[in-house]
Amino acid sequence: MKKITPTNIANYIFGNLKMLGDQLNLLPNHQREQVIYRSKICSDCVSAGACKYCGCSVPGKLYNDDSCNNGERFPAMMNATEWENFKASKNIVIRQ
Predict the structure, then answer these.
(1) Among the listed residues 64, 57, 53, 50, the one whose alpha carbon sits nearest the alpha carbon of residue 17
(2) What CA–CA distance (Å, rounded) separates 75 from 5?
(3) How far, in Å, CA of 73 to CA of 3, rounded?
(4) pLDDT tens string 6-33
């Protein structure tokens, strides 16, 4: 069961606000692509509706800056340059 802590509450609010920003087309493209990538990597969590590592609700969790899995599945949210380098190093192609 997910622990209710100030950090977890803040992460929930932050992730869901960024998700709303995405729905309003306000999210930068490099962040939108990372959310798409995370949703593919974590398809089991998406299907379950919650992250198997931290218990946070999905898809909101996919928008958080921090990685709850210490980079095992995906790293923390990257800036545009870091994301482009990461995609190139992993041969990742995102189709929107």
Answers:
(1) 64
(2) 22
(3) 21
(4) 988 898 899 999 999 999 999 999 999 9
Distance CA 42, CA 8 (A): 19
Contact at 8 Å (CB) between 70 and 63? Answer: no
Question: Where in the chain are the domains?
Answer: 6-90
What whole-number distance in Å separates Cα of residue 46 and Cα of residue 20? 17
pLDDT score recorded for residue 15: 95
> Phi and psi dihedrals of 91, rounded to 5?
55, 50
- Sign of dihedral through CA atoms 75, 4, 42, 46? negative
Encoded tokens for 18: 């960024």
**DSSP label at 43?**
H
Q: What is the mean pLDDT of residues 76-91?
A: 98
